[in-house]
Amino acid sequence: MSEPSTDQPPAAHRERRDALRWGVLALLGLALAALAVQLDARLGTASAPFLGRYKIRVGPGSVLAPLVAAAVLWSASRGAIQRRSWRKIQLFGYIAGLTWAIALALVDGWSGLTKALGSPEEYLGDVRRVGDDPLAYLRHFTADAPAHSVASRGHPPGPVVFLWLADRIGVDNHVVLGFLITALSALTIPLVLSAVRDSVGEAAARRYLPVLVLAPYAIWVAVSLDGLVATLGAAAIVAGLRASRTRVRGWAASGWALTAGLLTGVAALFSYSAPWLGLSIVCVYFARRRAFLNVVTGLGALVPVLGAQLLGFGWADGLVAAETDYASRVAPYRSVLWWSAISVVVLLLATGPAIVASARKLRNTAAWPFLVGAGAAVVFSIAAGLARGGVEHAWLPFFPWLTVAAVAPQMPAGELPPAPLLLTAVGAASAIVIEALLITPW
Asked: Is the pLDDT of residue 8 over 60?
């Protein structure tokens, strides 16, 4: 067997190099955040790069989370992910990802699943405003924005309406509700795997599974309604991919494209940033030369938004109200310059070392449409001065797509590398450390 050439180091060496680069960048970023705190910069928190406070603590998740990480890494290293059927792989990914998110949350005990729900700054406090007349709530949502919780002011009414519906069907126990939200959010994993399989093949999707399951941003998946946006956005992208398959034509293609639009529109009623994922769908149609599907998906996206308009909530008016609130409540007290840099640090920590490999091989993957949509959302958020704390959960819908190129070949159309287990392990370890030290307000 010939020795590998010096200009193409073996995969293990490249992994170690990417992990080292990430470690250096992460340490420099943490040093920058610490400097900002020491200089008493306008950050709005003493725990930069995150919002919250620091305190070492140990809970059930302190043991459970490492066990889950070890089980996933062992399964991947033994080839189990390569041998099982695709349906079993998706199910395994979902269960493992859900367990990983819950295990991290349980470092705080059961409060890890409930503290966000009970916070006066979160959506649940606004459910009582809906009462028995959700239509009245929608009609007055924008006008009553100053009276809403902090979370509701920055979002459309979708999260509150979802919690109201959950309460109406009898899901009022906070632990059960927290588990339900986490379980729905974890559906992002099989959906993203399906999208990767459809765009770059099943072999790459199988290699991507451990990266996706043990992602550090799982810390914020538990009981974060932004996780529901991630699920809706991923489902929309999957529908767009189904619509644009070579053999899918006519009514079948239009039906999938319409579904992609409807899901994007529903996601937009949960988050004002969700439409950025629609850019990924546009890029998919462009890459597959199915331009007409943009019209169908665009019309589908308008249906939920216009439906909400007819019921009394104007999406554009809500966006203006959210920006106005942000300009008065957050902007004057948090430096845009410092937070623009610190938000990049959060991105590094939340996505783990896989982000370095993904950025390095961006041009080598056919999954580039996913990176365009998610990357544009992040860049716009920073450039517009909107990334001033809290991006660790606000960017949850975009994180899974930013690391897809980590399993891309070293050169276009080249051979796929092995699953990046070292990068995955380092990222999982960083998540365990962050969860053990950081007490978030969510």
From this structure: no
The Cα 410–Cα 304 span in angstroms is 42
Amino acid letter for position 277: L
pTM of the model: 0.94
Rounded Cα distance between 308 and 24, Å, is 47
Distance CA(442)–CA(428), nearest Å, equals 20
Q: Cis bond leading into 157, ω under 30°? A: no
> Residue 205: what pLDDT?
96
Q: For residue 219, what are its two tokens?
A: 């810390």
Do the Cβ atoms of 196 and 367 come closer than 8 Å?
Answer: yes
Residue 87, H or E segment? helix 86-105
Cα-based distances in Å from 288 to 240, 250, 281: 11, 15, 11
DSSP 4: P
CA atoms within 13 A on the CB side of 7: 1
pLDDT of residue 4: 44
CB 126 within 8 A of CB 150: no
DSSP string, 265-308: HHHHTT-TTTTHHHHHHHHHHHHTT-THHHHHHHHHHHHHHHHH
pLDDT tens digit sequence for 9-19: 688 889 999 99
Task: Provide φ and ψ at 282, rounded to 5°.
Answer: -60, -45
Q: How many Cβ atoms are within 10 Å of 55's Cβ, its own excluded?
A: 9
> In this predicted model, what pLDDT tens digit does every residue of 99-129 receive, in sequence order?
999 999 998 888 888 888 877 788 988 998 8
The answer to whether 216 touches 350, Cβ cutoff 8 Å, is yes
Grouping H, G, I as helix, E, B as strand and the rest as coil, residue 231 is helix
- SS3 of residue 334 by DSSP: coil
Nearest to 399 by CA among 151, 207, 212: 212
* Residue appearing with tokens 């399993």: 407
Distance CA 185, CA 164 (A): 18
DSSP letter assigned to residue 438: E
